[in-house]
Design brief:
Number of strands: 0
Distance between the termini: 78 Å
Structural class: mainly alpha
Helix content: over 70%
Order of helices and strands: H
Number of helices: 1
Radius of gyration: 23 Å
Shape: rod-shaped
Strand content: under 5%
Length: 52
C-alpha cells in the first residue's frame, strides 16, 4: 500500500521541474514581447525625429 508521504514526494518531484520549465518559458516569452515593444517605440521615435 502506498504511503501518503511517498505520494506527496512523487507529486513534488514531478511538479518542481515542470514549474521551472514553465517559469523559463514565461521569462523568454516576456523578454521577447518586451523587445518587440521597445523596437516599436524606437521606430516611432525615429519617425518623430525625422519629421522635425
Amino acid at each position: 500500500m502506498l504511503n501518503i508521504g511517498d505520494v506527496l514526494f512523487q507529486l513534488f518531484a514531478i511538479l518542481v521541474p515542470i514549474f521551472f520549465i514553465v517559469l523559463v518559458v514565461f521569462f523568454v516569452r516576456s523578454s521577447k514581447k518586451r523587445k518587440e515593444q521597445l523596437d516599436r517605440i524606437e521606430e516611432k521615435v525615429d519617425r518623430m525625429s525625422e519629421q522635425k
